[in-house]
Design a protein that fits this description.
By secondary structure, the protein is an alpha+beta fold. The chain contains 15 helices and 18 strands. The longest helix has 23 residues, at 169-191.
């Protein structure tokens, strides 16, 4: 039967009992917080030695946390959890001796142990270690959540993520996949000749995006600084310097809202390629995501958390921003309407719009609230209004539009990309329109760099957290960030 001694006490009682066990061990001259254990095999490596019964009697050295404990008199089965998964141990009094077995029966679920012994296959077909030696290497003083109910309290899941990763296999799998996604991203870009560089997190001027920053202070310089809201402007300096292909995967900080899609700090990939443009980025982002599907997920067909099937293979749709806004409003002359008529139409569509915003912002509200949520299959949305991004090139055929795209999948933006503006005079004009009277926020250092000449280039950003949401079917950003921002506990 499973070891259930502790189920009758609350956590503080269990803690006291376990501390007493710890004290007893130490009085007997044994400290369970070991300096080291020579683990030679993970659970997966051990199991791989004994597939189809071949490899039985192979000696292995494994270590992990006890998650199942079945005491059965003079012989017991336990399962330990390590970085790769679980493996079963068979511990018998006759194999390890009376004293060692007596000590073993006092172990608790949650304790971390090291064990060595020979592999064999049980009658039920489970690969198991017949233990010859077992040692506690770290005592767990608090009990794990009940294995039958898992960890279901959302606040505890995010606040004590380590427990979530121990007892919820889907959370552990998602965390592993995030690691694999980032690793494969790097490998893919390296294979394409991109150099990974690092740019400052502390910046003297906010730039590269429109967002509210976190403000800090450098005592040594007596200077106000900001945590970066984007890596863009420094990565473009690398293009000026002659690095043709650069990328950075790094933490970004924006002092804005917290929601299912937003966290104040998040991880972003930004990529810049000289002598390319936004269409070159289309091919690159499609290749990146399809590569991740094959290497990490195993298929280009995925399911959202709502069970919707999304096909990421093959070619992807391309639609113009203006065409979709016209379809959503049902008004062919939408872009010629007065502000008053646009607001009236928005009211009919059930949209709450601040009447004090600018004309292009009304249109963008229609796009973000009506159009974007319906873009489930991968879609490149192109030719956005010039007011939305001061860092992109204007379209030569229609200077009211930009040579950009937003890749939307499952109702949210995954990756924006631009043909990067490299004319320093146009860039200065666009910056000045964006910042208005706040001239102290003009990044003259970046403009100076452009005056030395930046080659034509394509640039792209991918929100890693949203990408993980997409590829793993997570319900929101908190499920993909190991330690999301939370209110302090009272």
């Amino acid at each position: 039967m499973d070891k259930v001694v502790e189920k009758h006490g609350n956590e503080s009682d269990i803690f006291s009992v376990r501390v007493e066990k710890l004290d007893t061990m130490r009085r007997r001259g044994f400290d369970p917080f070991s300096q080291n254990f020579d683990r030679k095999h993970t659970s997966a490596e051990a199991i791989s030695l004994c597939k189809d019964g071949v490899g039985a009697q192979e000696t292995v050295h494994v270590a992990g946390r006890i998650v199942v404990f079945r005491l059965m008199g003079k012989a017991s089965f336990v399962k330990i959890l390590d970085c790769d998964g679980q493996i079963q141990l068979y511990v018998s009094q006759s194999d390890i001796g009376d004293e060692a077995y007596g000590n073993f029966t006092k172990f608790d679920i949650g304790d971390i142990v090291g064990a060595s012994g020979e592999l064999f296959v049980t009658k039920t077909g489970e690969i198991t270690v017949r233990v010859k030696n077992i040692l506690m290497v770290a005592k767990a003083l608090r009990p794990l959540p009940d294995k039958w109910h898992g960890l279901v309290d959302s606040d505890q899941i995010y606040r004590q993520r380590y427990l979530d990763l121990i007892v919820n296999p889907e959370s552990r799998d998602r965390a592993k996949k995030r690691c694999q996604i980032i690793r494969e991203l790097r490998k893919f870009l390296w294979s394409k000749g991109f150099d990974e560089v690092e740019t400052p997190i502390l910046q003297s001027i906010v730039g590269g995006a429109a967002a509210k920053p976190f403000v800090t202070h450098i005592n040594a310089l007596d200077q106000t600084c900001y945590l970066r809201i984007a890596t863009e402007l420094f990565l473009k300096r690398m293009l000026v310097a002659g690095f043709d292909r650069v990328f950075e995967i790094g933490r970004i900080f924006r002092n804005e809202g917290i929601s299912r899609k937003h966290n104040p700090e998040f991880t972003s990939l930004e990529v810049y390629q000289a002598f390319s443009d936004y269409r070159g980025m289309m091919g690159l982002v499609r290749e990146i995501i399809q590569h991740l599907c094959r290497t990490v997920i195993g298929s280009t067909t995925i399911k959202s958390c709502d069970g919707v099937t999304i096909e990421l293979g093959g070619e992807w749709a391309e639609r113009r921003y203006g065409d979709m806004v016209i379809e959503a409003t049902g008004m062919e002359d939408w872009f010629a309407l007065t502000m008053e008529k646009k607001l009236q139409k928005c009211e009919e569509l059930g949209l709450e719009i601040d009447p004090n915003v600018e004309d292009f912002e009304v249109t963008n509200d229609v796009y973000s609230k009506i159009v974007e949520p319906k873009l489930i299959q991968p879609t490149f949305v192109t030719h956005l209004p010039k007011e939305l991004c001061p860092l992109a090139k204007l379209n030569r055929d229609d200077p009211r539009r930009l040579d950009v795209f937003e890749l939307c999948i499952n109702g949210q933006e995954i990756a924006p990309a631009y043909s990067e503006q490299n004319d320093p005079f146009i860039q200065r004009e666009m910056f000045e329109k964006q910042i208005g009277e706040e001239r102290h926020n003009l990044d003259n250092e970046f403009l100076l760099a452009l005056e030395y000449g930046m080659p034509p280039a394509g640039g792209m950003g991918i929100g890693i957290d949203r990408l993980v949401i997409l590829l793993t079917g997570a319900s929101g950003i908190r499920d993909t960030i190991l330690f999301p921002m939370l209110r302090p506990q009272r």
